[in-house]
Amino acid sequence: MVERIKMPELPVERRLKSFDEVALGYSEEMARVEASRCLQCKNPPCVKACPLNVNIPAFIRHVREGNYEKAAEIIRSSNCLPVITGRVCPYERQCESACTLGKKGEPVSINALERFISDWELSRGFCIPAKIPEKTKGKKVAIVGSGPAGISAAERLALEGYEVSIFEALHMPGGVPLYGIPEFKLPKDVLLKGLKFLDELDVEILTNVVIGRTLTLNDLLSDGYDAIFLAIGANYPLSLGIPGENLCGVYFASEFLMRINLMRAYKFPHESDTPISVYGHVVVVGGGDVAIDVARCAVRLGADSVTILYRRTEKEMPARKVEVRRAREEGVHFSFLSQPIEFIGDENGRVKAIKCIKMELGPPDETGRRRPIPIPGSEFIVDADTVIVAIGQTVNPLALRGFPHIKLSKKGTIVVDPETLETTYSGIFAGGDAVTGSSTVAMAMSTGRKAAHFIIRHLSR
Amino acid sequence: MESYMLRWGEMPFKIISKKKLAEKIKMIEIEAPLVARSAMPGQFVIIRVDQRGERIPLTIVDWNPSRGTITLVFREIGLTTMKLGRRRVGEEILDVVGPLGNPSQVLNYDRVCMIGEGVRISSLYPRLKYLKKCGSHTVVIAYAKSGDEIIMEDEISRLSDEYYVVTSDGTRGFKGTAAITLHNLLKESKMKVEVVLAVGSPLMLRSIAAVTKRYQIRTIADLSPIMLDGLGMCGCCRVIVGNEVKFACIDGPEFDAHLVDYDNLISRMKMYRSEEQLSLKIHMGG
Fold it and tell me: Do residues A204 and A175 lie in contact, with contact meaning Cβ atoms separated by under 8 Å?
């Protein structure tokens, strides 16, 4: 039995000072060997475990036979952003968790093969969709937000002959993969090349248009859009609500990552005008993928030390194991069962320390993870020159301003009919993180595809 | 609307006219039709000059929906404003997004006093224009370090029912501070106003708030913390107002001046001081 081919990685010493991509991708030979491991199950469980139901065995068979174009076509029929998913999918929880080979040994490295095909596509220019659609339907759809949910809906609608406009509030398209995911996991030039197909489909992307400010949803309706898809994400940062959170040197993860990813602050001052202030002992609060991303950025920005504070233990940490391992290799420390209760500032209003409390694990909570409970009298002080709070985001309702017809849940997510993804206003649909709360790229894309399907049905009535 | 829309990658924001208002203070009129269509007094835009540029907020000083233009006034103080100041008429900048923030809270009052400091005197103009149209009584205190920084004097004095100039060096108008002038006007009961709005440095805002608190006059401060997206995504512009954390970009930029934590605002506004100087030194040689 051939062993699973490991993803080649940039050596640790080269990662410490650079934002170069860490996972290097398979060579052609590696891909062919890895593809040969696939059992080609008759009733493939991996396909069901993929939120986009990519026909995995079929594309892998084509990789094995060296027929990359065919493989790309198969992926593309279910997933228009392999350039993103091939790099950031938590495959160990999705397709690869179901792989038959994984029952006795290591699953097929499906994700690495998808990435291989996506890289191959990019290297030869771009894979043009099989049919260039004509705008035959005579109807227009507005999509609010240019992240994975919005883009995948746009692709479906354009292929069916609808006129599609994507409205993006920032100055560049891409959503979280652009401003949230660091360069060393998803290089931005790769991402932007991966969005080129939208040009081929004649989808227009209108940047610098803030729905809720520049235009309202009412404007879109009265300007002749026949349906709207809200893919506005969940991008309002959550705070700990403890004293000192407004001190200088305390960042929300969103600001920290936006400075680095969108504004390229890591190239300040020579190639970027946007500064970032990271030095000394850096402490990151949180245990998700964002906390890990932030910590690894801090390492690269020259922090003396980087420590992640998490209130539960490693076992409950939602972050992906592969990224936790890479973070450790890069020198990130972890302090488990620790919860900040106050940020302490110096005389200039900059953070200098964090008062924390030790936690212990009690009985499981509604998420099934054991609930952390503070241990009375266990307070301790951690030195910190820079703090990044990475405890999650919620929906930012700016886009809905001046349009009260769309109902939000108690958690602030957009309420939709689970069957059709239509909101409480007929003709306006919603998907992605705005509906589910923070989730994965593949999940967001699957809601985008589903919404497109029901938008088409709505418009064909 | 269609023709106003610009696709990603196009460079549409052309500078139509440009004027020097004072040493290092410039006014530009720039093409931004969608912003011009929906701007309200008190709102701002975020601009980015070039590919490597940062995003900075600037108050929309004036707009003309039929020409499709907006007017911005800025002091050339950092790298971005210097780059913007060097752009010539006919040249373009990369990004303008807005209108952002909420419209001003003073627009529904009958008797309004507005105080502006230096370059920010310009921010009073759109509010004044609107209030004048509504027939409100307006008092303006224009304050600057020196007389030559009292900008837009003709436009603003023409629209004000009462117009006072104050400079700290005494080269124009009263010599002193805006707060002292305000205090004197209130003390002598010369001025009856329902609301005071102040635009300028946090130090001035704080002293204005201290004065109006004594007279129990509702007071609004237009804050200008550092911003990044201006859309409520990053939290960079967060300010403490009445012990609550607010985002100036989506909750403001105006807040109750009596409740703002000015110390916190001041320290956060200085957060990148050394980086800003470094970047100026490297790119502008000083």
Answer: no
